[in-house]
């Protein structure tokens, strides 16, 4: 108390507020070093006696350890727990599904480990409805690598730019490849027994489709569409062969059917381009044809076939169909002389011609100069993955059709291996934890 009284006598009662502000300034400056009398007098007009009193009440400056600094910054653990209890105890229970449905997919699966109720929440109809109302996320890619001895599956999450390596819930003797996808579900084809499976790659749920009624087997193109907005409304799977045979599987009826005969106006055999997966726009499936060059469409809801003769761009080698906001796109390699470039085209409905809308940056294409490139293209719903391969070179690239943005993909390597993998086949799917096969 005596020191405070002495200070007040020096500065006067009328300047009390000003002194309090000045003390704060002195204390901050003391942490970094001592104060010089001349500097203080220039700032405040106080004499050296005031400084002596203040310096007498301050411990000498010392360097604080990092542990002390972190301890000051870290909040008290007890107060944090109390704060969380206050927040979550008042949180409305019906909003949990609304909040969780808007989290990143990886976070949703981490939340499943909290309690049994949250674990079972993903299978509820209410959560499925909430998830369907969330703006569409970037699709993931379900791929099979070239070393497919044990069904080496690699899933790529473009949001986190991360590869996942799930196990296929099938016997190791079965060799399955992804052939189509829709609504968070992927259609797998067993090459040995020629059976179809539907799975959710995120939850590893799996369903075997009944055997086809057509016993004879030939190479087929497979497409898949949803009946509605969610998998609860069912889906349809369709296969089509070059000979014109086709069937449609309805998940609501759990059976295959042949809705009609192939129209005589379309010449057989079809010469389908099996390297290009069919793409879906609503209930319409589009197949790429090699001869004549063009597109074949089938509406699974009406059973109507249509054929469009569309010449391909010149100097085009590997190419595949894609879809973006209801528009049919074409992705391919343009090779002229020793130069190679990836180009994107959009189908013009009025002229039935391909119009180029974008191409890979030239600085990236220089890497392909003089090389014999091969391209595998996966994708739908606005995001494409390109596997570009040549001798001693393997590049993975994504292309966003909305932003027209090219991005390099991290190398795909199997667990416990440093060998880079290249993509043999695959498909894109919308990640949906609640999708049921």
UniProtKB/TrEMBL annotation:
Positions of the F-box domain: 85-134
Enumerate the InterPro entries for this protein: Beta-prop_At3g26010-like, F-box-like_dom_sf, F-box_dom, Gal_Oxase/kelch_b-propeller, Kelch-typ_b-propeller, SCF_F-box_component
Family annotation (PROSITE patterns):
FBOX
Give the Gene3D superfamilies listed for this entry.
1.20.1280.50, Kelch-type beta propeller
Region entry Disordered, spans: 52-84
Keyword terms, alphabetized? Repeat
UniProt KW Repeat keyword? yes
BP GO terms, sorted: leaf vascular tissue pattern formation; regulation of auxin mediated signaling pathway; simple leaf morphogenesis
* SMART domains from the UniProt entry: FBOX (SM00256)
What name has this protein been given in UniProt? F-box domain-containing protein
Origin species, per record, is Oryza sativa subsp. indica (Rice)
The taxonomy runs: Eukaryota, Viridiplantae, Streptophyta, Embryophyta, Tracheophyta
